[in-house]
Every structure is written in structure tokens, then in C-alpha cells.
Amino acid sequence: MPTLRIFTNVTRERIPDDFLSTTTDVLDAMLGVPRKYYLVHVIPDQMISHGGSTDPCASVSLSCIGKVGLEENKGHTKALMTHFQSALGIDPARMVIIFENLDGENVGNNMTTFAS
User: Fold this and answer.
1) Running DSSP on this structure, what letter comes out for residue 69?
2) Which H helix or E strand runs over 19?
3) What are the tens digits of pLDDT across the range 76-97?
4) What one-character DSSP code corresponds to residue 44?
5) C-alpha to C-alpha distance for 16 and 94, rounded to whole angstroms
6) Is 77 exposed, middle or buried (0-12, 13-18, 19+ CB in 10 A)?
7) 2, 16, 56, 92: the active-site residue
8) d(CA 17, CA 9)
């Protein structure tokens, strides 16, 4: 159940209508889990500064069961930041992504958990 949360000071009006769908496409290319499990949550219009400046920036978290780690996260960072720069106009130097590897027993969906 990959969950991507994007907190940004970009206004809702500047977020493309297809952003949720295109972001799901990027996640799918990165992670390769069944599409029905992706959750993308965009929180626009936030009061955020990066380096003391309120130019467009983002604080992002990607939580998922597996699929993240030392080498994988380098590719994930490049793919996500490239997408956010193109779609939202945020400079990659003004984004931070936190990766979290979750245990299946700690993730619930459809009346159960993802425990093995």
C-alpha cells in the first residue's frame, strides 16, 4: 500500500488536473505493485519555507511495504523530483523526500492487514 504525501506551498490552482493520475503513473513505474494499492495525497497551499524562502517547495513522504532502501531511494528520488519539477515547477533543491519502509502487519486495508 504505497502512500505518497506531498505537502507544498504551491496553490491548488497551479496543480494540474491530472496530477494525481500522472503521479500514480510515476509510482507504478518505480514500484511495480498493483495499481489499486497506490494512495496519493496532495496537500497544497501550505505555509512552508525552505532555507528561509517561500518560493515553491515541498515536503514529501513515501511510505510502503518494501520497495524502498539505500539504492532504490536514489532512483525514486530522481523520478519523483523530476515529475514534481515538471508538473509543479518546484526546483529539486527545494524538495525533501522521506522514505519509510513499513511492516505489512502495520498496514490495514479492506478489513485486514498486509501481514504475511
Assistant:
1) S
2) helix 19-31
3) 999 999 999 999 999 999 999 9
4) -
5) 19
6) middle
7) 2
8) 17
Q: Tell me which amino acid residue 7 is.
A: F
Record the cell numbers describing residue 114, joined without a space: 498486509
Of 64, 52, 58, nearest to 87 (Cα)?
A: 58
Give helix 19-31 / helix 70-88 axis angle, nearest 10°.
160
Q: What is the CB neighbour count within 10 angstroms for residue 111?
A: 5
83: helix, coil or strand? helix
For the stretch 2-22, pLDDT in tens is: 999 999 999 999 999 999 999
Q: Catalytic: 92?
A: no
Does the predicted model carry a pTM greater than 0.70?
yes
